[in-house]
Design a protein that fits this description.
mainly alpha, 2 helices, rod-shaped
Amino acid sequence: VDAVLVVAFFVFMFGVLKKHVPSNDPRMINLWSALASSCLTGVWWLCIQMFRVVLRAQRSAKKQ
């Protein structure tokens, strides 16, 4: 599930960021979009992991 979410987020951000790269060269647009998307995808992955940890802690606190 995590891999699907991470890949989907990367593809989404890549598409969004392609429009914001200030260049006319398609190679540079793809390069900088991919680099920025990979950084944001790493943050997204950390967000997913932190959400799971907090959710698990809240559920275990309710059981006690």
